TrEMBL record:
Domain Histidine kinase positions: 619-830
Alphabetical list of SUPFAM superfamilies matching this protein: Adenine nucleotide alpha hydrolases-like, ATPase domain of HSP90 chaperone/DNA topoisomerase II/histidine kinase, Homodimeric domain of signal transducing histidine kinase
Catalytic activity entry: ATP + protein L-histidine = ADP + protein N-phospho-L-histidine
Record carries keyword Cytoplasm: no
InterPro entries (alphabetical): HATPase_C_sf, HATPase_dom, His_kinase_dom, HisK_dim/P_dom, HisK_dim/P_sf, Histidine_kinase_KdpD, KdpD_sf, KdpD_TM
EC number: 2.7.13.3
Transmembrane domains' residue ranges: 380-397, 409-437, 457-478
Subcellular location: Cell membrane; Membrane
A Pfam family recorded for this sequence: HisKA
Name of this protein: histidine kinase
CDD domains according to UniProt: HATPase, HisKA
Amino acid sequence: MGRGKLRIYLGAAPGVGKTYAMLSEAHRRVERGTDCVVAFVEHHNRPRTEVMLHGLEQVPRKQLDYRGSVFTEMDVDAVLLRAPAVALVDELAHTNVPGSRNAKRWQDVEELLAAGIDVVSTVNIQHLESLGDVVESITGVRQRETVPDEVVRRADQIELVDMSPQALRRRMAHGNIYKSDKVDAALSNYFRPGNLTALRELALLWVADRVDEYLTEYRSEHRVSKIWGSRERIVVGLTGGPEGRTLIRRAARLAEKGAGGEVMAVYIARSDGLTSASPKELAVQRTLVEDLGGTFHHVVGDDIPVALLDFARGVNATQIVLGSSRRKTWQYVFGPGVGATVARESGPDLDVHIVTHDEVAKGRGLPVARGARLGRSRVVWGWLVGVGGPVVLAVLLNTIDLGLANDMLLFLTVTVAAALLGGLFPALASAAFGSLLLNYYYTPPLHRLTIADPKNIVAIAIFVGVAVSVASVVDLAARRTHQAARLRAESEILSFLAGSVLRGETSLEALLERVRETFGMESVALLERAGDVDPWTCAGSVGPQSPKRPEDADVDMPVGDHMALALSGRVLPASDRRVLAAFAAQAAVVLDRQRLQHEADQAKELAEGNRIRTALLAAVSHDLRTPLAAIKAAVSSLRSDDVAWSEEDQAELLEAIEEGADRLDHLVGNLLDMSRLQTGTVTPLIREIDLDEVVPMALGGVPEGSADLDIPETLPMVAVDPGLLERAVANLVENAVKYSPADEPVLVSASAMANRVEVRVVDRGPGVPDEAKDRIFAPFQRYGDAPRGAGVGLGLAVARGFAEAMGGTLNAEDTPGGGLTMVLTVRAVDRLPDLATATAERQAS
């Protein structure tokens, strides 16, 4: 059975109609005869959405008890047993109630897909993990329920459910999204027009990027080389000269004129000639293009125009921006230049902009020919001069008698010209052909291939020797120039590679993408295996259809005994493998570094766990022994037959047992809470509650009259886990009572500030210096001379851990007039935080 297909309805905000669209799709499929069931859909008491559930089979939900309440979640086992063709699963980013089969709903969906069941689901753009910081900067709300981007990216279909901010606000005002008592707060906070517009743009751009990825993959799979101008992509050709900044800014202005415009600056390092690129200037231009929102690319190419056009077509660019040539007028005899060539060969689908600048015609050194060492055009001209030149010269000399010496000098001039243009072989051909013509036409006896005078034999031999020598020198110079340019190009690539290490670019995918761009490949993969006979596994890859084995790749570069860098796209020349080897070695280093970092993080966690366990054992052996010893002594006294205890004595012993048990229960509770926090198993169940429902219950553990309560009735509701909030406040109050004077009761007050509510626990004790305020929240820390019997030093650590788990904060401040004030800050409901899984998040469909 194959893997099921995933279809996702993506929305910019709650209420745009994702669930409605999903249910409409379900009705269409049922009408076509598809076996479709509702695995989990939350209608949030919206009448129109609830009506859409009629006529659809619903799998009964699973009921779970948590903290004295009953919650319902999707029953994964029941859906798997029912085995429908299509299952509807709402709210992909939802966090399941503790005790569920999986922690997140998207993990439940993965099980359904693995069983071959197609799934239709919904998600909001703010729930994508990579956009958490962006959404928080827009709305001021940190999204706690998120889904990994890769889960959504792997979806077979992503459909955007869109609605204008004005229409969405009208739906809100009509009561079609939230209840009437929440409409005003929602419209003035989360659902402000600016927030909705920004979220809508974020959703549209994200979907556009995914569509662009699908288009690139399709064009690669179907070998489509023609440019499809679906969006404006502008490629800027850089030479490393100072004019590059002007070109980048010009391209950025062009990109701003079209929606979704993208700028890609590319520098092509020659491998067939000298360049005048300045590494410092390239670094400046790289920074500039990245500051303007573009990307910088470094490519090696033997033919600058061809490499530039290949890159532009490979990224589906629509425009190319080039600078006017810096060559002087006389230098155009060597060719039309890069700009003219690119414009001529770009085709009808690629616009070329030639931008003028201050460096026009100021010179840039001799241009470098294309092709092999001397270039194809120079070789052709060399053969024409080497073969045709002697013929033309012979025709001219037959009309003029200049003497054998002058004739030989003229033929030698033609041979030298052929050597300068075409190198060794055209010059050898010219020398051989010229010597035959000299012998036939100008050396007695004439018109015969014989030589009567031995001196003429020496002259012709010298002529051939000089011609061959000059041709060899020119060819050697061309070879050395080619080698020098090749080494320079390699050094630029290696310098860039070293610079990426210094800049901290340690992502394996980024390095592999750099390899793909540099060598013009379609895909690159880093493969490894445990042993010589073990199968290959992919440690990282970029590009479509990356090779799974080195044998499947066009180029493979071994890295050690059990690792290889595999590239697909074309066969590389042997001269490129040296640079490729450096990339391969760097890829292995990056992979090892990532794994070592992961192991270091794990070791750090283990060390922290060991420290906590050691401290727990110390606490058990010392702090827990005191209440146990007191309980044991009291119980032994009561059971003793040697003493007749009075009723007062018995009551006192029983009271001691009760106090010891309460103290032991408190210590064990804190130890268990700290253990849960350290292992990351605390999952808050956020609800909307009033503080006066929770805070008074937190004062039950302190003596009556030791704490005063001031909770105004006008406070907004807060989004918290009631159990965690109660434990946190209780720990704060108990700590404050412990250090506060007996005649000074602790004050517990609350107040609203912007979108948050502050709970303050104020005592009049000795206070804590500023340098120790953070240290008192560390586990197993007691401030001052607190005795062993005062606890294990976990109360404040547990309180802060619970506060942060609920998305709040806990800090210590000085009490005016002396003492310490603990400030517990939680989120108010009027901002509709995404933390409220039972309210705002479940209304996000």
